[in-house]
Specification:
The protein is of the alpha+beta class and 509 residues long. It has three domains: 216 residues, 2-Layer Sandwich (Alpha-Beta Plaits), CATH 3.30.70; 85 residues, Phosphorylase Kinase, domain 1 (2-Layer Sandwich), CATH 3.30.200.20; 173 residues, Transferase(Phosphotransferase), domain 1 (Orthogonal Bundle). The protein is built from 14 helices and 19 strands. A hairpin with a 4-residue loop joins β14 and β15. The relative contact order is 0.07.
Length: 509
Amino acid sequence: MANVMTAVPDCNVPTHATVVSIIIRDFIHLTERVSATNLASLMASYYEKVGAQVEQQQGVLTSISNHGMLVTFFDVDGADHHARRALRCALAVALIAYQTRFLIRQSFPGHGFERFAVGVGIHTGELVFAEFSHQTDGQRIVCGHAVSIASLLSVKSKELDWNVVCSAQTLAAVGSGILTRRRATLGADWLKEPVQVAEVFVVRDGGAGDRMDATLKLDRGSRSGIYKAFDPAMFGDGSEDGPVLPTVPGYRCLKAVGRGGMSSVFLAERLSDKALVALKFADSSVSEDSDVLYRFVEEYGLLEQVRHPHVLQIYDQGVTDDALFIVMEYLPGGTLKQRIGKQGMAGKEAWRVLREIAHALVEVHKRGIIHRDIKPENIMLREDGSAVLGDFGVARRMHEVRMGGHLDAIIATPYFMSPEQALGVAEDDRTDIYSMGAVFYNMLTGRKPYTGDTLEGIVQQHLRAETPKLQAEYGHWQPLLDAMMAKNKSQRHSAKQLMAHMETFQALL
């Protein structure tokens, strides 16, 4: 876990602060069904990510157990009010819980686990630090009514079915810019009077048009909220006359570099080492459509597990005043689509790109992941020209795709989709090989393998048309293309078979 260095007040001196109590719901369910080794690994990952967010928001970790933790936020010179920083931390913890739920489902398919979830209680009030010593060792423990109330709220979160339960005292301490979805009154035998609480889902820094935090309800299939988490129209390309750039603690955004179907990408400088990175922000639709949010979080969960020189490297994920974001490797060479243009590429260069991506797919498929959207736009180039497979936004674990049985909609780019994607039937790793074959044809010719005036016309060619023919100078690669783009996936290469088949052509280069 991150080493939080924020200074704490003197012992036995009352101070005003915000306490965040975080508990893992139904933790006993995990301990009963997972080995101690696997549980330790799982919890280490969870607590490391939570600790990093505590450090980022300048909180103080004051206690931790196998299923819960207590974090205290004090006033810090030059920082936002402790209550506002506490709410941001709570938002990040909700996201981490969603990531952990996804990781559990990946690691233990079919185990019938209860949904991994946390309860977060936030309360602002007076507390003190007490120091308990034994010989030379000492430990500081936070005490006070504020701690008791925050702990009560985290426990009550399950009953309320909220991610975060925030007291009225904390809302008042944050001040303007808070929007709540639901409110409730909570009581306990030891309370003199009930506590008024609310589910906070937006925290704005100022007026209604300013940037905001959005505490999203991260349940797939439910409506996450009605307010935008990130509006790309608010941000420009970094020019003097354009709108301001997004703000992320620890990074300095330099300019906009791309837009996707559900995200915006900015070039940024990492302040700790001045390295250039790419910040990928989930666009505003993420807070409207939790399935899109699921894909964005899932992309990080998948790529976090893959370390390969030809797979896009992911460094971090978090939440800011503006949005949910991923920190990625910056690739200045642009996309393969830009490199192909209308004329195509030289044979040797296309062959090298094919080999590099095939090598990456061996590793990706070994980990049980199907990319499902391989196309020139999703293959990027480093400064030295080497190819990198990226954008895993619609990727899935193989066992999930098989269990699904069918697709509700076509999730692929029509020009590069496989026949099984066109039909909406079960996919496997050979789906990626078909798409990579279509990309190989595009690299060599500058043309799409199949074209048409309508989506239906293109789909029918993927299902029934012959494999497109390469020009005479590349005719010796036609058998390889035929094996990659076989209509029946049982006759198609796997990534390992593709690599082996490619070895037979080395002498012809």
